[in-house]
Amino acid sequence: MNHVKSPSRLKAFLSYPSEHLDIAREIKQFIRSVGVECWFDKDNLVVGENWDRARRLAQKNADVVVLLCASQTTERDGVYQREINEALEAARDRRLGSVYILPIRLEDVELPAEISQVQYVDKFDPLWSQKLAGGLLRAAVNHGIEPPPSLTVAGARPDEGGIIPREIAESREEGNLQVTWLQYALHGEYWDFVNAKITSLALGGLYEGRRNISEWHGDSGSSWELHISEAYRKGELVSLIVGHYNYFSGAAHPNHGLETINILGPEAGVVTASDIFGHSSEALKFISDYTALNLRQQRPDIKASDIAHYVDVYRWSLFDQFTFNEAGMRLNLSSSSGLPHVLGYVDVYIPWEHVGQFLAPIPGRILLKDSPV
Predict the structure, then answer these.
(1) Does the pLDDT value for residue 373 go beyond 60?
(2) How far apart are CA 277 and CA 360, in angstroms?
(3) Which of 130, 246, 326, 340 could form a disulfide with 224 if both were Cys (CB 3.0 to 4.6 A apart)?
(4) Is the same domain home to 268 and 334?
(5) Long-range contacts of 179-186 (CB under 8 A, 24+ apart)
(6) Which of 350, 346, 323, 324 is nearest to 334 (CA)?
(7) In a domain, 372, yes or no
(8) What is the CATH number of the domain that holds 44?
(9) Surface-to-core class of residue 209, CB atoms within 10 Å of its CB (0-12 exposed, 13-18 middle, 19+ buried)
């Protein structure tokens, strides 16, 4: 095992086709939110600087290259191709088994053989950020760099196996409907409860979607989707992501959102953020301040006073969309939390070591059992 060098920080270089600048910014914000340095041309280049020299130096000094892949990966020449070729050349000098290039597909495209031999992540996968964090976590270990707590929270792997995927897809005159969910092939009263909770949400959403898509039937096609996936599972602890999307003909734009379900075993059942922290006003204040500080680093356009305002309005429900693992919790802040739609999605990672003292007795005993606190 590599010796850990605490003072170092993992450095990432983000390469992307210019047509996908908005998605590149989103991924850049995520990488920085988990405590990893990220070189991004729109932020790091300054007026008068030799941009190509600065770019080459940043890529050479990076521990990992995050490569965004789309149709332009194989269809266009230019600086983007130069960055790909330089990354592939640098990868040849890396020791076998190390993580260096992390490809992210932005579209359902076939990757060139030189890239496809590396495990990639799909941006359209609901768990893309967790998988990317896992790759960054592995890269940190390869380089003997102690991963920041927020990266450990983001990249923790769930238990694998024991899952039965389920799907219903319908094509109707009014439009298309799709729901995907999972069932656990595990026995006992508790897993019956978990499976019932998931199935009720999936099928209940489908029946509501059928009604809505019929009521909003128009000249152009409508669509409705619901996807339930596992964010984390260890033993009897389950954290799920519920993604939903709908477009009803005639509407100005589609609606989409992300919600979560968190179940702390048979001792606690389904819990909210308020349940985990015992409805403590002191904990709410700490998490609000922590969130405001983190967002100031990620998104300068979001002010601390904005978060304070929304906490005053929504109280604990502002933080109810979260996932968790043995290292900490990930707050999913979006319109599903009560924030304005224009702010998009923002994630904040909070290690248990920072908030463990605020946990209620039963959640504390359950969540801190395997944590590094």
Answers:
(1) no
(2) 5
(3) 246
(4) yes
(5) 179/203, 179/205, 179/206, 179/209, 179/225, 179/226, 179/227, 180/226, 180/227, 180/228, 180/229, 181/226, 181/227, 181/228, 182/228, 182/229, 182/230, 186/162
(6) 346
(7) no
(8) 3.40.50.10140
(9) buried
Question: What pLDDT score was predicted for residue 97?
Answer: 63
Angle ∠(245,248,254) on CA atoms, nearest 5: 45
pLDDT at residue number 170: 92
pLDDT digits (tens, 9 = 90+) for 174-221: 888 999 999 999 999 999 999 999 999 999 999 998 888 887 766 567
In the numeric block, the tokens 């003292």 are attached to 357
Side-chain half-sphere exposure of 161, counting CA atoms within 13 A: 1
Residue 29 lies in domain: 11-155
Q: State the amino acid at position 251 in one-letter form.
A: A
Q: Which helix (H) or strand (E) holds 259?
A: strand 255-264
Token pair, residue 215, equals: 């009521």
369 DSSP assignment: S
What is the token pair recorded at 316?
């604990």
Residues with Cβ within 8 Å of 324's Cβ and at least 6 positions away in sequence, in order, are 232, 237, 239, 262, 330, 367
Identify whether the C-beta of residue 206 lies closer than 8 Å to the C-beta of residue 226.
yes
Tell me the CA distances in angstroms from 37 to 40, 111, 177, 321, one per residue in order. Answer: 10, 27, 41, 26
If one counts every other C-beta atom within 10 angstroms of the C-beta of residue 365, the result is 13
Determine, yes or no, domain membership for 6.
no
Residue 54 CA to residue 14 CA, distance in Å, equals 13
Query: What domain count does the chain have?
Result: 2
User: Would 234 be classed as within a structural domain?
Assistant: yes
Q: For the domain that residue 199 is a member of, what is the CATH number?
A: 3.30.565.40
- Comparing CA positions, the residue from 1, 112, 133, 2 lying closest to residue 66 is 133
Alpha-carbon gap, residue 162 to 220, rounded angstroms: 41
Residue 200: what are its φ and ψ, rounded to 5°?
-60, -40
Residue where a domain terminates, one of 155, 181, 215: 155
